[in-house]
Amino acid sequence: MTSPRFKAVIPAAGLGTRFLPATKAMPKEMLPVVDKPAIQYVVEEATQAGIDDILIIIGRNKNNLSNHFDSVPELERTLEKKGDHAKLQKVQHSSDLADIHFVRQGEPKGLGHAVLRAKAHVGDAPFAVLLGDDLIDERDVLLTTMLEQQARTGAAIVALMEVDPDAIHLYGAADVDATDTEGFVKVKGLVEKPAKEDAPSNLAIIGRYVLPASIFDILEHTEPGKGGEIQLTDALEEMAADPDGPGVYGVVFGGRRYDTGDRVDYIKAIVQLASDREDLGPELRPWFKEFAATL
C-alpha cells in the first residue's frame, strides 16, 4: 500500500462531443465498458493503489456521476428481498469504493484549469490525476509505481507510452533523457499535440500524472495555449525547464491501456475486456472468430 497522504483528482467535465447523441444527456464517463461505467474502472484503479480520497471535477449535466457513486436504498432493498446477493454486492461496491467528492469546473477551460479547481481540496500535498477516459488494465501496474517515484523524488511524474509516430499529434509528446532506472526517464520538455515532424519523440503522455502541489502556482499564471485552453502540458513544460524546481520524470508504460474517449478504441476496449472475463470470454471468443471469418 502507498502512503495515505495521496489524494486523487479525476477530471470529468468534458462535453463528450465525439459520442453524440449518446452523450447529449449522459456524461461520456458513464458510458458502459462491458457492465461498468468507464469512470468506475478509474476509481477502482486509484483505490487499488491505496488512495481512498478522490475528487471528481464535473461540469453541467453531470449529476449521473455523483448518483452512480451514491447508495440507492430502494434498489438495494429490492435486490435483498429477491435474494439476488450477487447484484446487490455489485451495486454496493460502487458506493463503498472510496470517499468521493465533487466540484464543478464551471467554464470548460481545459485540463489545466480542471486540475487547478482541485487546489482547495488537495492542499499542500502531492496528488494523482487520472483522466476518466483512459483505462489501465488492472493486471498491469502503473499508478503504484508512479506514486512510489513521486514519494522518492518529489518531482512531477507523468505516464508515457510509445505510440505510432503518425499518431503523436493526438498527444503531448515528451523529450526525455534516460536515467539509471529502466523505464524511468527525465523529461526535458513537452510539446502539446505536435505535428509528426516536430515531435521530440514518439513517447506520448497518457492520462496518469502524480504531481507536487507546486503545480497549482504554475497553473495560476499559465496562459491559454493550444485550443484556447489552459493546458496541463504547458505547466509541466515550465516545471521541467526550471533548474531550481522539482523537475518532471516519466514512467514508461508498456502494459494494456484502453482509450474510451475515441469511438473505435471504445469498442475495442469492450471487446478486449469482455473476451478476457471468465464469465463472458468462453462464449464470446468462439463467436469473435466466427464473425471475423465472415469479414
TrEMBL record:
Pfam families found in the cross-reference section: NTP_transferase
Keywords: Nucleotidyltransferase, Transferase
Origin: domain of life: Bacteria
UniProt keyword Transferase present: yes
Example of a GO MF term: UTP:glucose-1-phosphate uridylyltransferase activity
Chemical reaction(s) catalysed: alpha-D-glucose 1-phosphate + UTP + H(+) = UDP-alpha-D-glucose + diphosphate
EC number: 2.7.7.9
SUPFAM superfamilies listed in its UniProt record: Nucleotide-diphospho-sugar transferases (SSF53448)
UniProt domain Nucleotidyl transferase: residue ranges: 7-274
Keyword presence, Transferase: yes
Family of this protein: Belongs to the UDPGP type 2 family.
Name this protein carries in UniProt: UTP--glucose-1-phosphate uridylyltransferase
Lineage per the UniProt record: Bacteria, Bacillati, Actinomycetota, Actinomycetes, Micrococcales
